[in-house]
Amino acid sequence: MPLRPMIFTLLGIVAFLAAIAAEFSSPLLMLRPSHGDADAPGIGIAALACLDLVFVYTLIFLAVDYFPGIRAVFARVQGIATLVLSIFALLASILLAFAAFTLLMLMVSLLLAVPFGTIAYFALWGDFDTGTAKAILGFAMTMKLVGLGLLLGASFALLKNKGLVLLAVCSLGLTFVLGLLQSIPPGFLVSITDAIGGLVTLIVVIVWTLIFLIGSLPAIVRAVRSAV
Question: Which ranges does the record mark as transmembrane (predicted)?
């Protein structure tokens, strides 16, 4: 078996894991100690990490093919593993989406509740750290593009995998849109637009986890029939 496709695929996965690490660490990197624990940093970038985890899980299917011993075992448990992980991911995404929606409504309500609510909003969310957010998004986007380049270097046949291509488009597209939502609006509104971006991303994650959940059922049926 040629080593180049395997190495490129594994390096592509590592690049996406680096992007996910940056996205998940964004709340810590954007935390402003001067405002105390009540100040919640933006949630949009962290929501992107949830979507990218779904993408990396798909890439693992490709990487397993390069290891025959693992592939045989993985083929037997793939359906049930995908089902269980999809259920947990779906529940977590729904809870996070609800939390994002609640936070969004709170911020909008405070901003419009002149004068004291507006003062509270500006004190908590009026100075979104756009500089750090841009740096994190820039690094994440770079790692994703590098990862996709490595995957294509492994095999252009990946372009025939419509699900993988759609996931990649969703990841890159939402990263770009979130960057616009954090750059175009006035600074005091960025916390709200960031929450909108995070909510939309989480809804996309919910849709994808539902697709994975439903898609895992035929594999489970085949595994049960082969066992019987």
Answer: 45-67, 79-98, 104-124, 136-158, 164-184, 196-221
